[in-house]
Amino acid sequence: MPLKSSYSDHLKKTDQRLIALLSDRISLLAASEQPSLDEQLADVAPLLAQAGIPESVWAGVLNSCHATLIPKYTTNHVSPRQITIIGGCGRMGRFFKEQLSLVGNNVSVLEPEDWDYADQLLNQAELVLISVPIEHTVDVIKRAAKYLAPNTALCDITSIKAQPTQAMLEHHSGPVMGLHPMFGPNIKSFLGQKVVVCPGRNDDSFQWLLDLIKSQGGELIVSTPEEHDQMMVIVQATQHFCRFSLGVFLTQARIDIEQSLTMSTPNYRQEIDIVKRLFSQNPHLCVDIMLATEERCDAISFLADTYSHLAKLVAMKDRDALIQEFEKTQSFFEKKINSFIQPLNTIAIQRDFQAKLHTNISI
Hints:
The chain has 363 residues and is an alpha/beta fold. It has helices spanning 2-30, 37-51, 55-67, 91-102, 118-122, 134-145, 162-171, 207-215, 225-252, 257-262, 266-278, 283-291, 294-315, 319-337, 347-353; strands at residues 82-86, 106-110, 127-130, 153-156, 176-181, 194-201, 219-222. β4, α7 and β5 form a beta-alpha-beta unit.
C-alpha cells in the first residue's frame, strides 16, 4: 500500500511539472511567431527517438498547444454564405459541410439523385464545392457549370489538380480554385493539417475560405496544378502502392500482426499503423488515387521494376551489388536532403519535396 501511495505522489508531481511546462510553452507561442509543425517536430526528432516517444504523440501535444491560441471563429456581423457541396454525403464532403456549417453558413448538398433540383441548388450558391470520386470530377464540373451564376465561386477538392482546374476554367467564367486536403476525412478540424491551394481565377473570392482554414490551424501550401500533380506522384500514389503492397503481402503470408507488434521496433509499429489506416479507407478511393493519371501508373510500374531488380539481387545473394545500390542511394540523399533530414524524422524529407510556392494571393 505505501508503494502505491508513493507511486501516486510521484505521478502527481510529474503531472504538475508537465502542466507548468505546457503553460510556459503556450505563453512562448503566444508571444512570438509560431514555427510550422514540421519545423517544431524536426527540431526535437533526435530527442524523441532517444526517449522512445513516437512523433505522433509529440505532434498531438504541439497541436493541442496551438489549439489553445486559435481565436474562436465568430459570425458576428458576417452574413451566412449560401454553399452547395456536390458529393456532400461522402466522407470528405461531410467534413467540409460540418466545418462550413459550424461558422454559420447555409450548406446544401447535391447528390446524384438531386440533379432535378440543380438549378435551385447551384444558381443561387456563392460557393459550389465539388467532392466526388476522381473519375467523375471533370464530368461533374461540366454538368454543374451550366447552372452557375457568373459570380459563383467554383472549387474542387480532388487529389489531382491539373485536369479539374482546367475544366473549371474552361466551363465556368467566374471564380475558380482547386484545393487538395492532404488528410483523410476522419479528422475533426483543420488543426495541424495541410491543404494545397491551386489558384485559378479571381482568387479574392476564396479568401474567406482560406482564412477559415487558417483560423482553425490549417497550413496552406500554394502550388500550380502541374506542380501539385507532379509531387503527388511521389507523395501520394507511390506511397499508397508501397503500403497497399505491404498489406497484401502480410495478408497472403498470413502474418500474425498482433504477435509481430509485441516484439516490434518503433518504425515497424508506425508502418503497421499507417497500413492499417490505409485499409480502413474506401477501397475505391485508394485504388483511384493510384490509377488517377498515366504519370502515376508509370511511376508505380517503375517502382515495381525497382522492387523486382532488388529482389533478384537478394535471390542471387549478390551482396556487393546490393551494397552498391545502397551507397548510390545514400549519396543521392546526402546531396539532395542532407540539410533537412533528421534521424527517424520523415516529415522534413516530405517538406523538401513539396512544390515551390507561386502565388499572389494573401494566405
